[in-house]
């Protein structure tokens, strides 16, 4: 794709503030992720999750190679190869865990558990980035995890081990977003996107032959587009995180839950039960409270205690 066209992608919002561009990018990212998750849930109904993960990465790699062909050698150079590999591995693990969970859970349930990621981001920001996180923000994280336990319901007959897969995916996704923020000043978003696609494709290609099932024509077409959709989503995510702090953008993760409920109902006749809705509400409420503390904490002494 010509350099002029690639540049135009990020000049469309030139008159907007960086924060507004970041918010719009995140909203678009999580819409595309919801579409990708819906396609993945359909595919894992008949295909192994490893095969679907391979399709997600392989088609994205083809898309990225075409997009960046004239500059591949330059963009392959990274100032932080270890962090790029770690970040790409975290996203691969999150994708595999989540797609496996989709095979066993309703779409809205799995996505609701993924909404613990913004809370985990807050914890990782303190532990990894050294950001100051006070008792109130830690309380928000703990309350959000209680919401996750309401959905998982360990010790009860309705407990699904698959829920732990979705929760593990949330941990990996949170670590991925923190690593993305750390890379935002080291490498260009194009280098980061290239590594994301390439590393995931290499790992998945090594495993896919052991789980391969010939897809139908419809499945093959969906396998061809799922990574392109994911590629646009992750491009938007990386761009958004390069324009504003991860803690400010964290609440917009919750738009994924709205899309998941809508798509789950429309395409799979699924509607979350009262416990899932209650747990999701607690998770979202806790996340919004943590976000509020982040905003207040920047406004003066009253908020500096966390």
Layout of strands and helices, then pairs:
Blueprint: H1 3-9, H2 18-43, H3 49-68, H4 72-75, H5 81-104, H6 107-114, H7 117-127, H8 135-152, H9 162-183, H10 189-207, H11 217-243, H12 246-249, H13 255-268, H14 274-297
Describe this structure in words.
- The chain has one domain.
- The longest helix is centred in the C-terminal third of the chain and has 27 residues, at 217-243.
- α2 (18-43) packs antiparallel against α11 (217-243).
- Helices cover 75% and strands 0% of the residues.
- With 306 residues, the chain is mainly α.
- The chain is globular.
- The protein has 14 helices and no strands.
Descriptive terms for the model:
306 residues; mainly alpha; globular
Structural class by secondary-structure content: mainly alpha
Global shape: globular
Helix content: over 70%
User: Which spans of ≥5 residues are poorly predicted at pLDDT below 50?
Assistant: 299-306
Number of domains: 1
Biggest sheet character: none
Terminal-residue CA separation: 46 Å
Please compute the radius of gyration using only Cα atoms: 19 Å
> Helical segment tally?
14
Number of β-strand runs: 0
Order of helices and strands: HHHHHHHHHHHHHH
Q: What amount of the residues lies in strands?
A: under 5%
Overall pLDDT: 81
């Amino acid at each position: 794709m010509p350099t002029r066209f690639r540049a135009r992608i990020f000049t469309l919002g030139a008159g907007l503030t960086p924060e507004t561009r970041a918010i719009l990018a995140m909203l678009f990212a999580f819409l595309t992720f919801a579409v990708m998750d819906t396609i993945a849930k359909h595919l894992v109904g008949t295909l192994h999750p490893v095969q679907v993960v391979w399709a997600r990465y392989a088609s994205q790699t083809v898309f990225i190679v075409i997009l960046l062909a004239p500059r591949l050698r330059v963009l392959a150079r990274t100032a932080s190869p270890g962090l790029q590999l770690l970040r790409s591995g975290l996203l691969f693990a999150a994708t595999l865990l989540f797609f496996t969970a989709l095979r066993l859970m309703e779409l809205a349930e799995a996505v609701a558990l993924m909404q613990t990621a913004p809370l985990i981001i807050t914890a990782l920001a303190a532990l990894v980035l050294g950001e100051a996180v006070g008792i109130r923000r830690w309380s928000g994280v703990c309350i959000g995890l209680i919401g996750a336990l309401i959905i998982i319901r360990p010790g009860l007959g309705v407990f699904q081990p698959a829920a732990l897969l979705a929760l593990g995916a949330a941990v990996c996704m949170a670590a991925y977003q923190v690593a993305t923020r750390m890379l935002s000043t080291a490498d260009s978003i194009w280098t980061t996107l290239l590594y994301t696609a390439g590393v995931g494709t290499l790992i998945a290609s090594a495993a896919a032959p052991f789980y391969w099932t010939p897809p139908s024509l419809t499945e093959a077409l969906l396998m061809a587009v799922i990574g392109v959709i994911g590629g646009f989503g992750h491009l938007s995510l990386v761009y958004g995180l390069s324009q504003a702090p991860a803690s400010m953008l964290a609440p917009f993760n919750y738009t994924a839950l709205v899309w998941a409920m809508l798509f789950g109902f429309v395409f799979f006749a699924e509607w979350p039960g009262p416990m899932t809705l209650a747990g999701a509400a607690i998770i979202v409420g806790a996340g919004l409270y943590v976000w509020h503390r982040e905003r207040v904490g920047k406004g003066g002494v009253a908020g500096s205690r966390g």
